[in-house]
Design goal:
single chain; 487 residues; alpha/beta; Rossmann fold; Dihydrodipicolinate Reductase, domain 2; 2 domains; 9-stranded mixed sheet; 6-stranded parallel sheet; 17 strands; 35% helix
Length: 487
């Protein structure tokens, strides 16, 4: 592999998007690459080659981009001249990877170019694409491949994909993308933890009594119903996004910010996660499925009424669970994870709940009101420290107040979107915010028994009305430990 400096200085870049006419490319990838182009973060000799099965010439392809991708760039970031310059980087190559080789792609790819292959396709095509890239002579030491989630639907399929891709690409050339790791606030969590000496001594049991991680979505499954029904919330969100957030919260300080130093510590967390038995699955996990309700001030249909959802489907659209990281730092501290579709509002947050003072000096105050550190990831990006303060007036009545750091207003610099930041990392050869193979497989080793256990228990998901915070059983999960979800 060339170094980043050598790559940026001397090699042209061919960014090749498989699935280049798909929804992900239109909504996320091309707008992110436009923003990277606008701000000068792409090498000067860059080309973006989109592949698809449609019989498009370049003019038809650019017209498709204008219609389906341009609207995902905000007006504040759109510049007509920059957009026209960006379109000059784009080319279209008709490819049907299931029916033919990649000779057409090899013909237009520049010899000696640094090639980034972005596989924005179904995971079932990853093996075929990588095999045919190798057959066409397009894989060399300067090549990189980006694998979009989901990477398998269980451990066996994840191992199979990793083996197939690993036949042609070294591990240092493989970028397993999780867009949550590109979010500014998620990356800021590393700085919050390891760049502030005031927090590190407290970041452990018994000072911390619980950790909550919530990723709530207001939208339903929409056009993804066909895929979603075969995956469910556990595969779609918990096994990747929520576990990655848990790893950053729970990991030990890495020796450096080198990619493998950081990923080594995340792997230790995944291997320390307590495994579930059938009894603990029944006790400590909650599955839900939304039914008709009110969301965004309008009535919306339930999951079983969505288009392309099979009648009687038992796929979960909500998961809540309690787990533990069995290490000295986190001994007996419960980690509560929650995610769902059609919840009351879009909200992603991490809540660190600290222990109450050991002696109740102010007995007139309600018990159980703790200090909390609330890290909001979306839609706001903020860090809030909830502490106790005296209410004005006579007496010593306390009230919870928040020290609030609004990250969006605290910094004047533009905040890049997750995909833009991660694509720039790929171009520059930065692996820190991408999953390593052993991380992915360790996550599946933990998640797969839960999925299998649900199958054995054969219980239907608990119903919850669209526009709420999930089924009542998820609140009971915390209540029996003396906690409640922080909304």
């Amino acid at each position: 592999m060339t170094t980043t400096a050598q790559s940026e200085a001397s090699l042209p870049l061919d960014m090749i998007i498989f699935g280049g006419m798909g929804d992900l490319a239109m909504r996320k990838l091309l707008p992110a690459l436009y923003m990277a182009h606008l701000h000068g973060n792409l090498p000067p000799a860059t080309r973006i080659l989109s592949t698809g099965r449609q019989e498009f010439d370049r003019a038809a392809y650019l017209a498709f981009i204008e219609e389906h991708s341009r609207s995902f760039i905000s007006a504040a970031n759109f510049a007509e001249e920059a957009w026209r310059g960006f379109l000059q980087l784009l080319e279209y190559v008709r490819v049907d990877v299931q029916q033919e080789g990649l000779a057409a792609l090899a013909k237009v790819s520049r010899p000696g170019a640094e090639r980034v292959f972005y596989l924005a396709t179904a995971p079932s095509l990853f093996t075929t694409i990588c095999d045919k890239l190798a057959e066409a002579g397009l894989v060399d030491r300067n090549a990189r491949v980006v694998l979009e989630k989901p990477l398998g639907r269980d451990l066996a399929s994840a191992v199979e994909i990793n083996e197939a891709v690993g036949k042609h690409f070294a591990e240092s050339q493989i970028y397993r993308i999780d867009h949550y790791l590109g979010k500014e606030t998620v990356q800021n969590l590393m700085v919050l933890r390891f760049g502030n000496s005031i927090l590190e001594p407290l970041w452990r049991a018994p000072n911390i009594t619980s950790v909550q991680i919530t990723v709530a979505e207001e939208v339903g499954v929409g056009s993804r119903a066909g895929f979603y029904d075969s995956a469910g919330a556990m595969r779609d969100m918990v096994q990747n996004h929520l576990l990655q957030l848990l790893c950053i919260v729970a990991m030990e300080p890495p020796a450096s910010l080198a990619p493998d130093a950081v990923r080594d510590e995340k792997l230790k967390v995944l291997r320390s996660l307590r495994r579930f038995s059938l009894a603990s699955i029944a006790r400590d996990t909650v599955r839900g499925q939304y039914v008709r309700g009110v969301s965004g001030n309008q009535e919306v249909q339930g999951y079983l009424e969505e288009r392309n959802v099979p009648a009687g489907s038992s796929t979960e659209t909500f998961v809540a669970l309690r787990t533990y990281v069995d290490t000295w730092r986190w001994s007996k501290v419960p980690f509560y994870l929650r995610t769902g579709k059609r919840m009351q509002r879009r909200s992603s947050k991490i809540v660190i709940e600290f222990a109450n003072p050991p002696f109740p000096l102010f007995p007139e105050n309600p018990a159980g009101v703790a200090n909390r550190l609330v890290i909001e990831l979306q839609p706001e990006e903020a860090i809030k420290l909830q502490i106790m303060a005296k209410q004005p007036g006579s007496g010593m009545q306390m009230q919870q107040v928040a020290l609030n750091l609004d990250l969006q207003s605290a910094f004047s610099q533009r905040r890049a979107e997750a995909y833009e930041r991660l694509l720039i990392d790929v171009v520059r050869g930065r692996l820190t915010h991408f999953m390593r193979r052993d991380e992915l497989e360790a996550a599946w080793e933990w998640a797969e028994p839960i999925i299998n256990g649900w199958g054995t228990l054969a219980e239907k998901p608990n119903a919850y009305a669209a526009g709420t915070w999930g089924p009542p059983e998820s609140f009971a999960l915390l209540a029996r430990d003396g906690f409640s979800w922080v909304e």
